[in-house]
Specification:
Oligomer: single chain
Strand content: under 5%
Number of domains: 1
Structural class: mainly alpha
Shape: elongated
Number of strands: 2
Radius of gyration: 27 Å
Number of helices: 10
Amino acid sequence: MWNFGAHSRTSWRSPIEKAAMALDKNTFVGIALAVAGIGIGTVLEGGALRQLMQPTAALIVLGGTLGAVMVQFPFPVVAQAFVQLKNVFLRSGPSPDALVQHLLRFAYKARREGLLSLDAELNKVDDPFLKDSLMLAIDGVKADDLRKMMELQLDYEGEKDERIARVFDAAGGFAPTFGIIGAVLGLIQVMQRLQNINEVGKGIAVAFVATIYGVGSANLFFLPCAGKLRIRLREKQVIQEMMLEAVLAIVEGVNPRALELRLNSFATTPPKRWLEKVAVP
C-alpha cells in the first residue's frame, strides 16, 4: 500500500515554487586557496604583496578583455553573462528529492482523478518548463508531440545558456594577451627612462605585473567560471529532462511505481522509495 499521509492536506506547498539560493563554498574556498598560494609564494620569494597592486595593469587587462568580449558577442549576451555570474557563487534550483516527490504526487493525482485534475495545480508551479509541459499535457497533446516540442525548447535554451559559458571562455583567451600588451606598454615606458638606471629594474618588475593579471584572471576566474556555468547548465538540463519524463509518463498513464523507478535513474544518490513519502492534499 502506498502511504499518502494526511499531514499535508492543509499546509501543502510546492517544493519548487521558489528555488532556494545557497552559497557554493567550493568556489570561495578554491579562489581563497589560489590567492593565498600566490600571495604566500610571493612573500617567501622575498617579494611584497604591494608590488602586485598595480591599478594601471588591471585597467589594461580588464578593460581590454571586456572590450574584446563585447566585439565578439552581442551586448545582450554579455549582459546576461554578468547576470548569470551569480550562479558561479550560488547554487539555486529545486531539491531533486523534493522534485521527485512533487512529480510523483502529480502522477498519483492524475491516475486517481484524471489528467484534467492537474489544471488546479498549475498556479502552484513556478518553473516555466514544468508548467508548459503540464499545460500541453492537460490540453491533450499526444506524448510524442509533447516530447518533440519540449525537447526543441530544451535544445534552444541549452544553446542560449552555452553562449553564456562561451563569453567566459573568450575572456579567458583574451586576458593573457592583454596582459602581454600591458607588459610591453610598461617596458616602453621603462625604455624611455634608461638614463636613470636605478629605476629600470623596478620598472621592468612593475611592467610584468600586467602579465600576472592576464594569466591569473584567465586561469583563476574566467575559465573556471565557464566550466562551472557548464556544470550548472547540465544540472538544469537533468532536472528538466526529469520533469519531461514525468509528464510524459503521466500522459501515458504509467503506474506511479514504475514512474518512481524511472525517476530514480536521474538520481545521483542511491535510489529511494519516494511513494511512501508522497502526500496528496
